[in-house]
From TrEMBL:
Originating species: Sphingopyxis terrae subsp. ummariensis
Organism domain of life: Bacteria
Keywords: DNA-binding, Transcription, Transcription regulation
GO biological process, alphabetically ordered: negative regulation of DNA-templated transcription
Protein name: Predicted transcriptional regulator
Keyword Protease: no
GO MF assignments: DNA binding
Entry's family note: Belongs to the BlaI transcriptional regulatory family.
Stored InterPro entries: BlaI_family (IPR005650), WH-like_DNA-bd_sf (IPR036388), WH_DNA-bd_sf (IPR036390)
Length: 122
């Protein structure tokens, strides 16, 4: 993605990753109402996502069908790396240390991290 989607745009994109194609009306029912967005707001978010190249629109009679134009894993990878770069100098261990210091890691989280580390070492 050339330009990073906003938080609101990411909610729309996530809904499309979960189920596509969808119309603006579908997306308004799915994510718009929960956020207090009108269909006009959802259409604005979709137009921005289309302009950014994150969503593709296809005419279907008098309506448009929207689908993601970027892969979820790739987008999550880019966003994760941006986050780690910006806040932790590109290093993951300070992020984990920060979460541990704030007691934000559950026992299940710790077990998953340990399993990932064992997998990386093998």
């Amino acid at each position: 993605m050339a330009e990073r989607p906003s938080e609101s745009e990411m909610q729309v994109l996530a809904a499309l990753w979960d189920d596509a194609p969808q119309t603006a009306a579908d997306l308004t029912a799915r994510v718009g109402r929960a956020n207090g967005w009108t269909q006009a707001t959802v259409k604005t978010l979709l137009a921005r996502l289309v302009q950014k190249g994150a969503v593709a629109a296809e005419a279907d009679g008098r309506r448009y069908l929207y689908r993601p134009a970027v892969d979820r894993d790739a987008a999550v990878g880019e966003e994760s790396q941006r986050f780690v770069d910006r806040l932790f100098g590109g290093r993951v261990s300070p992020l984990i240390a920060h979460l541990a210091d704030r007691e934000a890691l559950t026992d299940a989280d710790i077990a998953e991290i340990e399993a990932l580390l064992r997998k990386l070492k093998s």
